[in-house]
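Aim 2 progress. For Probable GTP-binding protein EngB, the working sequence is reproduced below.
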Amino acid sequence: MNILNYHKTKFLKSFSKITDIEFQDGVEIAFIGYSNSGKSSAINALTNQKKLARFSKIPGRTQLINFFEVVSGFRIVDLPGYGYAQVPSLIKNKLKKIIYNYLETRRQLKCLVLLMDIRHPLKLLDEKIINVAIHNKISILLLLSKCDKLKINQQKIQFYKVCKKLNLLKDSFQVQLFSSSKKIGIKELKLNLNQWYEKYITLKNF
Ligand SMILES: Nc1nc2c(ncn2[C@@H]2O[C@H](COP(=O)(O)OP(=O)(O)OP(=O)(O)O)[C@@H](O)[C@H]2O)c(=O)[nH]1
Ligand SMILES: [Mg+2]
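Predicted C-alpha cells for this construct:
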C-alpha cells in the first residue's frame, strides 16, 4: 500500500465560489458536517499540524472552501459547516449554497468524511447530505466526533444506534469513533483515506 505522509500536507488556496476553483486534476476528499462538529480540528489532527486548518470555539469559523494537498493529485477540502442557529441567516444561506453546489458539481470529489458530534448524530441536515452523496455516488465515512466527551459505554451505545439507523438507508457506510483532542481514530481515518487514494490511483481515474 502506498503510504501517504499526511504531516506533509500543505495549504493550497481558499475559494468562495465553485466556479473559481482552479484545481482540475486529481481527486478530493472533503470534510463536511454541522458547524462546530470538529472538521478543521480533524484535519489538523490528521496532519499533525496545529494550525493548518483554522478552527474556533465560535461556530461558523470556516466560511470558504479550503484546499490542502496531501500529495500531488490528492487534496483534502475543509468545507464550511452547516446549520448553526447563531450564524446570521444571510451567511447561513450563502454557506448552504456553496456546500450543495460543491457536492453536486465537483467531479473531483470522490469521498466525504462526515463529522457528527457523537452526542447528536444524524441530525436533519446530516441525513440530507448523506442522501445527496448517495445520489451523486460519493463514498462516505462517518466520524462520531468529540467522542472524548462521552464515557466508553456511552460511546458504544451511540455507535450502535448510528449503525442501526444507517442500516435503514440500505447503503453501506463506514462509521468510526473519533476525537481530535484525544487522538482517537486517527490511524483508522488514515487507513480509510489511503484506501480511497489507492482506489483512484489504480483506476487512473484522473
Ligand atoms: N472535546 C473536544 N473538542 C473538540 C474536538 N474537536 C474539536 N473540538 C472543539 O470544537 C470546536 C469547533 O472545532 P472546529 O474544528 O473549529 O469545528 P468546525 O467543524 O471546523 O467548525 P466550522 O468551521 O464552524 O464549521 C473548537 O473549540 C475545538 O477545539 C474533539 O475531538 N474533542
Ligand atoms: Mg472549520
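Helices lie at 39-47, 89-105, 124-135, 152-167, 186-202. This observation will guide construct design in the next reporting period.
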